[in-house]
Amino acid sequence: MNFVRLTQGFWLKEKGVSFCLRLKRNHCIEIEHLVWQRLDELGIVPGTSLYFQGKRVRKTQPATGFDVACKWKRNSGAWQVDEAWFILTDLGSLRAALDAYKQRMGLEEMFP
């Protein structure tokens, strides 16, 4: 995982600030003790989602105690969704993480 993302996550946790940070699909999650799997190899397909609590996450150096929300929106007619969202969070549920992360869309549109 990008070390900056982990550092941001730790800093935000320390300050008591909740967060949702997007992860790239090549990051890994420890699905069992010492068994690591890339996020894009979790079997997420359009229309599915997963939520992992209190997991170790890494790209290079592991970090402990993060939740990861995974969601790939369902394709709709001619509109095709290219890839899943993988979100590092501390919000405690898939719904809370997705709702919070969706809010960034409106915020990004306010800044040219």
Mean pLDDT: 84
Alpha carbon gyration radius: 14 Å
Low-confidence spans: pLDDT under 50, at least 5 residues?
none
Helicity, as a percent range: 25-40%
CA-CA gap between termini: 28 Å
Structural category:
alpha+beta
Placed side by side, the strands forming the largest sheet appear as 1-6-5-4-2-3
Number of strands: 6
User: What profile does the largest beta sheet have?
Assistant: 6 strands, antiparallel
Question: Explain this structure to me?
Answer:
With 112 residues, the protein is an alpha+beta fold. The protein has one domain. Helices cover 26% and strands 34% of the residues. It contains two helices and six strands, in the order αββββββα. A six-stranded antiparallel beta sheet has the order 1-6-5-4-2-3. β2 and β3 form a beta hairpin. It is globular, with a radius of gyration of 14 Å.
What topology emerges from the helices and strands here?
Blueprint: H1 3-15, E1 20-22, E2 28-32, E3 35-38, E4 48-58, E5 63-72, E6 85-89, H2 94-109
Antiparallel strand pairs: 1-6, 2-3, 2-4, 4-5, 5-6
